Amino acid sequence: MKELRFRGWVSGPCGATALILLILFICISGIQAMEMAQVKWIVDGDTLVLENGKTVRYIGINAPETGHSGKITEPFGSQAKQVHVNLLKNRKIYLRYGAEKTDHYGRLLAYVYTQNGEFANRALLKLGAAYCLFRPPNIKHFALLLSAQREAMQQKRGVWSNLVRDDRPLVGNKRSYRFHKPGCAYGSRTRRSNRIALEGLWEAFWQGYAPCKRCFPSGVFVQTVEK
C-alpha cells in the first residue's frame, strides 16, 4: 500500500498520534502563555492593580484620565473607570504579555482576558470606554482593536457620543499613529514622508490615530452635562 505523506508526516497510527501530540503541545503552550491573576482594584479605564501589587496597563488602548497621580480629570474618565469595574466583577483575569512586557513606569503591559474568555481590551473599546493606542512593538492585535473602536464610533457609545464630525485639518504621523494640531511643535517635526492630512477628529480616530498629549492636554472628548 502506497504511503501518503503530508509535510513530512506519515499517515497511519504513528503519524496520526504524532500529529495529535503536536496539536496538544501547541494548545498547552498557548494556555501556559496565559497568566492567571487576581485583581485588587481598578485604577481607571485602562489600568488595574493586582493582588501582588503589580500594576497592569492594557496594551493597545487609552482611556480618559480620572485625575489620579496628579493628572487632570478628563470627560468620561469616571464613566470609563466604571465600565472597567463592571467588566471585571469576578476579579479573576488572565494576562498575555506583549513583545514588550513593561513600560518606562514599570507597569506590566498585557492583553487582558476575563474568566469566560472575553478579550477585555477589545470589550472596553466596543463599549466606548477607550480609544486605540498604537505603540510598537505591542501592535499584534491593532487591526482587531481598531475594528472594535469603529463599531463603538458608529453606535456613538461612550466617548463617541458627542464627537463632532468637523473638517478642521489635523496632521497625522503615519509612523507613530499620532495626530497633531497644525501648529503643534511635535507635529512639525514629522518627516514629510510620514505626514498625512486628516480631516478632523472623526477621520483621525477612524484611521486609528491617537491624539498628541502635547497639543491635546485635556483630551479631545466633550461631555454634555444633563440639567
Description:
The chain is α+β, with helices and mostly antiparallel strands and 227 residues long. It is 28% helix and 25% strand. It has helices spanning 13-32, 77-87, 120-126, 142-155, 185-188, 200-206, and strands at residues 5-6, 9-10, 35-42, 47-50, 55-58, 61-62, 92-102, 108-114, 131-132, 169-173, 178-180, 195-199, 210-211. The strands form 4 sheets. A 5-stranded mixed beta barrel has the order 3-4-5-8-7. A 4-stranded mixed β-sheet has the order 12-10-11-13, with helices on one face. Strands 1-2 form a two-stranded antiparallel ribbon. β7 and β8 form a beta hairpin. α3 (120-126) packs parallel to α4 (142-155). Residues 1-11 and 24-32 have low confidence and may be disordered.
The Cα radius of gyration reads 21 Å
CATH class of the largest domain, named Mainly Beta
Number of helices: 6
Helix-strand topology string:
EEHEEEEHEEHEHEEHEHE
Strand order of the largest sheet: 3-4-5-8-7
Q: Overall pLDDT, averaged?
A: 86
Specify the CATH architecture of the largest domain.
Beta Barrel
The level of helicity is: 25-40%
Low-confidence stretches: 1-11, 24-32
CATH topology label of the largest domain? OB fold (Dihydrolipoamide Acetyltransferase, E2P)
**Strand element count:** 13
Helix/sheet category: alpha+beta
In brief:
The termini are far apart. The protein has 227 residues and is an alpha+beta fold. The protein is globular.
